[in-house]
Every structure is written in C-alpha cells, then in structure tokens.
Amino acid sequence: MMPLKLTCNQCGESLEVPEETRFLTCTACSSQLEVHRSGSTAYTEVLEAAEPVKLELELEKLDREWMEEIEKHHSSVPRLKLRQSIAAIPLVAGMVLAFVGVWLHSLGNDVRLEHMLHPWPWVCIGLGVFGVLGWAVFVLATGSDRRNIGMYNLAEESYCYRRHRLLQELEASSGRDEDQ
Fold this sequence. Notes:
The chain is α+β, with helices and mostly antiparallel strands. The chain has helices at residues 51-73, 76-86, 88-107, 111-117, 120-141, 143-179; strands at residues 4-7, 14-17, 23-25, 32-38, 41-46. The strands form 2 sheets. The protein has a 3-stranded antiparallel beta sheet.
C-alpha cells in the first residue's frame, strides 16, 4: 500500500500516512486530524478533542507501535520458542531413563534377574544423568534467549492489557455520547 500524501490543514505541514489511517496527529503542530476521503482525493480536517477520537487515536498508535515491535522480533521469537520447547526433551528423557535405571536396579536385587539385568540399570542411570546435564548446559547456554522471550511475552501481555482497556474506555465513551 502506498502512503497518502496529505497536508495538515492547521499548519500546512506535509504528511505521509498509511492508506487505512482514519485519525492522526500532525508531527509539526500536534493537531488532532481526521482523514476524509472523497473519490480519489483525500484531505485532513482538524478535530475538536472529543474523547472517543482521542481514544481511537491512542488505539491506532498502540497498534502501530505493537506492529513495529513484532517486526523487530518476527523471525527470532518463534525460533527461540521452538528451541525452548525442544530443550525439554533431554530433561524428560533423562528423568525417565534415570527412573527406569533405578527401577531395574531394584529388580536386579532378585537373584534370578541379576545376571540378565546386570549392566542395564547403570546404563539407564548414566544416560539419564547425561540427558539432565545436557538440558542444564542448554539452559545455561540460552539464558539470553530465554530473557528475550520473557521480555517479548511481557510486552505482548502489556499490549493486550492496554488495548483491552482502551477498547473498554472507547465503548464507555461511546455509550456516554449516545446518552447525551
């Protein structure tokens, strides 16, 4: 989509705005503007600072900032989340193998099974410990990745919360305007 080339009808500043934008704030004079479209032309009009308009502008700004945040992390976060999920495999496998090794060792106390099971309890326990240690090394090696995922998740929660609050305020504000 090509950005629209408009001018602020308050100060005359040139503005480039995304095609779908309905409200904006002039970068030069900070006027609240509404974009009007008529056929193939578009122009701006200064708005009175009505509460719903302010809230819609704030919502558009919040959405735009979140899209920029997603663009910064679009390739790294899914990859990091996948690596974090895969890291659980050696931990679970190691714990299961260690448990099986201990269980086989307890079975090996029976004289009839001792010769049949002889190396396997220790092999399972060794592999289990190796799996858990492999997981620990992975966790230590990817500490900054996990921190980045945590920061991204916090930013996403904050965005969702703020957006939800703005939508509630906008709905309440629209209800007040209808009552008047």
